[in-house]
Each structure stands twice: as C-alpha cells, then as structure tokens.
Amino acid sequence: MEFQVGRNRIFAEGEDGSLLAEVTFPFRPGHRAEINHVFVDDALRGQGVASRLMETAYDHLKRHRRMVIATCPYAISWFAKHPDKQDILAQPVSPTQP
Q: Which residue(s) pair with 21 in the sheet?
C-alpha cells in the first residue's frame, strides 16, 4: 500500500478513490502538530496498516521538525509501544497510558 502526503494528513485511497487509511495532524501554534485521528478501513484491519501509517507520519513530522501532541487513542497507544519514537512528542507517554 502506498501512502500519499496531503496537507495535514497522510492517506491511502483505493482504485475507486475511496479512503482506505488516514492519519490527520492539523498544525498548531508553536511548530506543533496534533495527531487527532487514525483511520483504517475494516477490510484492512489486522494487517499492520495503522502502524505503518503512524511510522510514515512520524518520519514526515520529524523531517519537518514538528513537535507532536497525540490526542487520538491509537496514536497515544502507538507512541507508548514505540518509546524510541517519542522524541517528537511534546509530552511523552508511558506504556501504561491508554
């Protein structure tokens, strides 16, 4: 699956243009971005798509020197499972956080 980078989001579409996966990160003051939504179509769940989407978002936001505020429950959980990626978080999360 190939992801596309758009303004404040990274996503993948099906051949028919339907949205298959998406992470949104609107920009906030202070060179920050808020990861507020991660979506994966039901047909793709359990295949690691959301994790790959977050990895892509991490790389993109780090490259653009954005600090991240994670408000989406999946994003919080992903960062908790990947402490090596928390360098871009405005506030680190612990493995015990939801």
A: 12, 40
Distance of CA 54 to the CA centre of its chain: 4
The answer to the question of residue 97 being in a domain is: no
Identity of residue 17: G
Q: What are phi and psi of 46, to 5 degrees?
A: 85, 10
Which residue shows structure tokens 């179509």?
A: 41
How far apart are the C-alpha atoms of 21 and 13, rounded to whole Å?
7
Please report which helix (H) or strand (E) contains residue 76, including its range: helix 73-81
Residue 17 covered by a domain? yes
pTM, two decimal places: 0.90
Summarize pLDDT for 16-66 with one digit per residue, the tens: 999 999 999 999 999 999 999 999 999 999 999 999 999 999 999 999 999
CATH of the domain at 49: 3.40.630.30
Q: Tokens for 83?
A: 């402490």
